[in-house]
Amino acid sequence: MNVANHTDRRSFERDHLDAAxxxxxxxxxxxxxxxxxxxxxxxxxxxxRGDQGSHDFLAREIVRLHPADGLLSEEGEDDLMRLAxxxxxxxxxxxxxxxxxxxxxxxxxxxxxxxxxxQAIVGAVALPGLGIxxxxxxxxxxPRSEGPLRLAVSRTRPPxxxxxxxxxxxxxxxxxxxxxxxxxxxxxxxxxxxxxSGGQYEWDSAAPVAVAKSAGLYVARADGSEITYNNRDPWxxxxxxxxxxxxxxxxTAIDHAG
Length: 258
Fold this sequence. Notes:
Blueprint: H1 13-34, H2 43-65, E1 70-73, E2 87-95, H3 97-100, E3 109-116, E4 119-127, E5 132-135, E6 150-154, H4 160-169, E7 172-176, H5 179-187, E8 193-196, E9 200-201, H6 202-214, E10 218-220, E11 235-236, E12 239-242, H7 247-257
Helix pairs in contact: 1-2, 4-7, 5-6
């Protein structure tokens, strides 16, 4: 059963709004800390303070607003009691820490998601450098895509398998930083496909997946299977986010790239 299709969206209305607000406010906090780079702090210090400060804010607010829910954060201790809960918030307080410490780069993000019975159905991705928050509170409309296919890829370590998929598809590579930035590039029409095969964690993709789904994009594992969240091991080997009309071509290209 697809939980997202069999759950009244109105019962999660507060969650959608909370996710968007918290992601936006964490992004504003990170922007303030970032202004200190080169004056009172180094880039590495700003990265560390950003990771911890954003986590502290999000964890405190989620516990205050949703005390009965679980929490899984990149920067927090993993409490496996979450496995017994239907509702678990999954957050990446600063996705793209490297890019964050390199102003004026804007390809970093804040992820706030709620997984309900294993599915990411609520999510917000703040792109503070661009001044926007994309969320399930107000699902974005997909822009029209024209010209050659574009595949978002890591700017520092693109896996060979992703480059081979791009070759099979005849797609141009669009290099950028964080996972959230790459997934949202597809939502915003700056790319047509985001395929990752180098392994990630649940917090890297939960919020982007929720937002991408709400926008009508195709989201799946590399073999076409559904992505689930709040697993004992939060490691996720691969991810596809693409326009729905490209799904079959992308899956075929991945299979061909082997």
